[in-house]
Amino acid sequence: MKGSKATSWIRPRLRHPVGAGVRVLIVERVRHVNRVKGLLFSQGISGYEPLRRDRRRRLDTLQTGDGRLLPVHLKAQVCRELDRLELLLEQIKAVEAERDVLLAAQQVAAPAPAAMLLDIKGIGPEFAAILWSEGLFRHFDNRRQVASYAGLAPTPWQSGSVDREQGVSKAGNPRLRTTLIQLAWLWLRHQPHSALALWFEERVRRNGGRLKKTTIVALARKLLVALWKYVTAGVVIEGAVMKRT
Fold this sequence. Notes:
mainly alpha
């Protein structure tokens, strides 16, 4: 069956270098932010945000938990971390600008699938780039293949007369799955009158307001399938608000 149509949807393919570059830089940014917070917390200092623009000025005013100024060597170490962090912020800004230019060029040239996602209210350049480069560029034969690739397909369990689901498999692309769950929460905010959002609200209401986390995963699965149909067949999600008319 190697190379057949039945397995074409799981063939490996290189991800977009721009999208991958942003992800690597963001992971490194988180590491430096956590490092700074950890160093300061060891001195009884909390609430300092290294990503704020006044980070240098606020660093000069910090005091330890017992009212002392920061030790000289510790402050120098934090400053070195901030140097690296500020370099990363500039690199992230440059890579994101490059990504936006590529998406804008696609929109002007033709209704490319990645650019089509930007027409949906609530989906920005970062989400569009991840959704396309992490999964929607692939060929899928049906909705179950789409959900399985993201690790969002339900896992059935049967024993005698008992037949139920054990939740999602989580065996697919973790980056795509995490992004879709984040997008599902944002979908409820930006697309409250869409059929998918109304389905979520009704499902939660029937459960007495419980199981929201479980239901949001189901919404993420439905949203992925709906986006797949949209970029491949042009089927607009029912009730969704578009940015352009």
